[in-house]
Amino acid sequence: MGYTIAQKIIKEHLVSGEMTVGSDIGLKIDQTLTQDATGTMAYIEYEAMGIPRVKTEKSVAYIDHNTLQTGFENADDHRFIQSVCKKHGIYFSRPGNGICHQVHLERFGKPGKTLIGSDSHTPTGGGIGMLAIGAGGLDVAVAMGGGAYYITMPKMVRVNLTGKLSPWVSAKDIILAVLRVMSVKGGVGKIVEYGGEGVKTLSVPERATITNMGAELGATTSVFPSDETTRAFLKAQDREEDYRELSADDDAVYDEVIEINLSELEPLAACPHSPDNIKTIKELEGKTVDQVCIGSCTNSSYLDMMRVAHILKGKKVADNVSLAIAPGSKQVFNMLALNGALGDMIAAGARILESACGPCIGMGQSPNSKGVSLRTFNRNFEGRSGTADGQIYLVSPETAAVSALAGVFTDPRCLGAAAEIEMPEKFLINDNMVIDPAPVEEMDSVEILRGPNIKEYPATSPLTDSIEASCSLKVGDNITTDHIMPAGAKILPLRSNIPKISEHCFTVCDKEFPARAKLLGKSIIVGGENYGQGSSREHAALAPLYLGVKAVLVKSFARIHKSNLINAGILPLTFKDAADYDKIKLGDMLALPRVKEEIAAAQDITVVNQTNGETFKAECELSDRTRAIIIAGGLLDYTKENS
Ligand code: MIC
Ligand code: SF4
User: Fold this and answer.
1) Among protein residues, the one whose CA lies closest to atom 4 of ligand 1
2) I want to staple 554 with a disulfide (CB 3.0 to 4.6 A). Which of 17, 30, 221, 527 is the partner?
3) For the chain, which domains are there?
4) Cα separations (Å) of 89 from 59, 378, 442?
5) Which ligand is nearest to the CA of 360?
6) Among the listed residues 484, 535, 527, 487, the one whose alpha carbon sits nearest the alpha carbon of residue 216
7) Atom number of ligand 1 nearest to Cα 361
8) Which residue, judged by its Cα, is nearest atom 7 of ligand 2?
C-alpha cells in the first residue's frame, strides 16, 4: 500500500507510536515559529525548561500581531523576545517584516520538513509541501528544546482538484467551497491533502491561501504536493536548493475523497459569523458595503496585491467605503512600492497599513456599528473585529477590490477577461529585518530584557483524588477561543500577564465570569460541540487555569485547544451521552469522586450533580503520555519531572 504526502513526511519524522489512525504519535520537529502574541509566553516557558540553545534546524520568532504600541507593554514584549532569540539561537523577524506565515513561506519553509508554530494558521506552510501544524506555545517551547511533538495520527482526506479557475475566481473561493462541504468541524482529526490535475494551475501562494484556511476546517493540517511550481517559487526566492519533490503514491489510500471542479466554482463569501456560512457573491450582489480590508496571512501575497492594484488602478474607492490594505510582508510591500502598484492603491483612496495582522486580530480598523465589512481574512467570529455588532464577510481579494469601488457586493467576473499578472521570476530578496542569533561563544553574555508587564506562568497542581466544584459557566456549540480569551487592541497587550488578561476571560459570553470563577476558587465549565475552535492561543487555557477551572466538560473539543487544556493540567472531559449536557445548570455543584483513580486506569469518569442528584459518565480521552501530563498537573511539571 502506498503513502499519502503527509504519511511520507510523518514516516520520516516518527519518533514514537504507530502510523495507525487514532494512535498517539511523536514527531521530530525540524522548524518552529512563534508570533509575539503567543511568543512571549512560549519563551517564558522555554526559559523555564533551562535549555541553553534551541535544537531545531531553524526556529524563527515573528513580531506581527501586537504591533499597535499604545503603551509600553507590546514594545517591552518585543524587546524581551528579541533578547531571548539572540541568547538561545532563534532568528528574530522584526516588526514590519511581515506576517509570520507569509514570511515563513517566502524565506524559510522547506518541502518535506516538519514545522510547528504557536499560531493556528501555521498550516500555511502546507502550500510549499511542509507538514506544518499549529500548536500551543508550550508545545513549541518543548520542540525548540529538542522534544518531540505529539498528535493523534489523523485520517487522510483527499481533495481532488480538476479543471481550472475561471477569470476572477480565486484560491479563496476554493477553500470557501471546501468549507461549504466540510464545515468548521469537518476536519477535526484529519489531514487534508490536495491533488489532481487542478493543482498544477495554482501557484504556491494560492496553495498557501488554501492550506492556511484548513485551520478553519479544524484540520490537523493541510498539504499540497511539492512540484515544479514549488521549485520555481523557491528559485524565485533564491533558494532552489531547498526544493524537494513530494507527491502521494498512486495507490495511497484516503479515508475520504472530495471532488472540486475548479471550472465550476464561482466567487463566494463566508457570511457572519462563521467561516462555513457560505453564500455566492451573486446571492449577495447589491448589498451595501461599509468597509473593505485586504491582507492577513491568508491573502496578502504579491499575486493577491497585484490583482487588487490592477482592479483599483485609475479608479476611486466608493464614498461609502473605507478601504484598508496591508501587504503581507516587507518583500511584497517593497515590490509594490518599486513597481508602481502601491501608487495605484494610494491614488484610488486605499488606506495603507503596515505589514502585520492588524484588523484581522482587532488591532485597529474596527468597522462602524452594524458595519458590513468585506475582508480577505480567514475568521469572522462574532466580535473579533472589535465591533460587537460588526457584520464580517470573508471574500477573495478580487471580490473585495471590486466591491470597494462599487460600494456594494459585486461579482468580480464583471471585469471580463483575466488580468495578465504573472508570478515574478525573481522576488526582491532583502532579509535585513531578520536578526541572527548570537554565536554560541557569545550567547552567555546576552542579557534578557524583561518589562514589568511580564508575569510568571500561573501556578499548577497535580491532579487530586477527587474534585468538587460548581459549574461556573455553561455555553453552547462552536465556542471559539475568541470567546474564551478575546483579543483586540485593548486585551492583546496583556498576553504576558495572565492575572490581568484573565479579567477578560469569557466576558464576551458572560461579563461576570472572571469574578465569579475567582470567588468560587475552583470550578468546572460546561460546553457543547467543537469547544475551543479557532486560535492556538494557550491563554484560552492559562486564564481559566489562573481562575481555578479544574475541568471543562463538553460535547466535543477542537484539537489545539484540547491539548492546551491538557498542557495546563485542566481535565478535558466529554459527555458520554450528549443528552447529559441538559442535566447541568449554571451554579450546580458537580463532583468527580474518583477522578484520579479513573484517569489512571483509563476508565470513564463518574460525574455526580450534587444539586439535582443526577449521576452520569464522561470520557477523558488521553494517551499514556497525556494521562501522565494531566496527573502531573500539566506539561511544565511533567517535563520537569521527566528531565
Ligand atoms: C488568530 O488568528 O486568532 C491568531 C491571533 O493568530 C491566533 C493566535 C493568537 O491568539 O495569538 C491563532 O490563530 O492561533
Ligand atoms: Fe495574524 Fe490574522 Fe493570520 Fe491570525 S489569522 S496570524 S491574526 S493575519
Assistant:
1) 535
2) 527
3) 5-264 (3.30.499.10), 268-412 (3.30.499.10), 467-642 (3.20.19.10)
4) 8, 32, 11
5) 2
6) 535
7) 5
8) 361
